[in-house]
User: What shape does this take?
Amino acid sequence: MWGQRRERAGGGVSEPVRVLLVDDDALVRAGLGMILSAAPDVAVVGEATDGAEVPGAVSQHQPDVVLMDIRMPRVDGLAATETLRSRPGAPEVIVLTTFDADEYVLRALRAGASGFLLKDTPPAEILRAVRRVAAGEAMLSPTVTRQLIAHVAAPAPPSRSRAAQRLDQLSERERDVAFGLARGSSNAEIAAELHMSIATVKAHVSRLLIKLELNNRVQVAILVHDAGLA
Assistant: This one.
């Protein structure tokens, strides 16, 4: 069912980005709903109050993007993200937090989230993040990436070695693109740096995701950092 949603959502560029809000705080949901509903190209299609409600809400509302609170009483956003992103055709996930360098955020990104937002992020930035993630881009700046990686202990040598071995299967050009992702660069920035078209960058990203068996570009960035190559 989720795979059908993704195909339908990609069928027309005029369709608004469908967003599901997941937060146990009614005021947070109301505030986000007001911000997102004010944009003509974004539609809030549903809400959930706990991670346990996410699978049913996704099946019912068919969102393109889920704004997911991390800390909820029964099933937290980390577990909900892991469950959601493990299924084919899953929507993109942006995690919500009150901390800008939180170990739970990094774990959510490893689980397949495409980025995170602080709950006091300005409205314009929230809209930009939703649009960017819906378009297949990550929304982690280089500064944020460094903060998150530095917040947890560096990988032990065996883990670093395994990460490096996974990257060894990439072609030279794919590695160049992977390093660009690790710096938080957009497709356009990588294209300019490597003197290739944006379409070629997208093709390289798709191939390296398949080779590395990862969900999105954020996980590629984390893998490069784990290998000690960033």
Q: What stands out?
A: The mean pLDDT is 83. The longest strand covers residues 42-48. The chain has two domains: 2-141, 153-226.
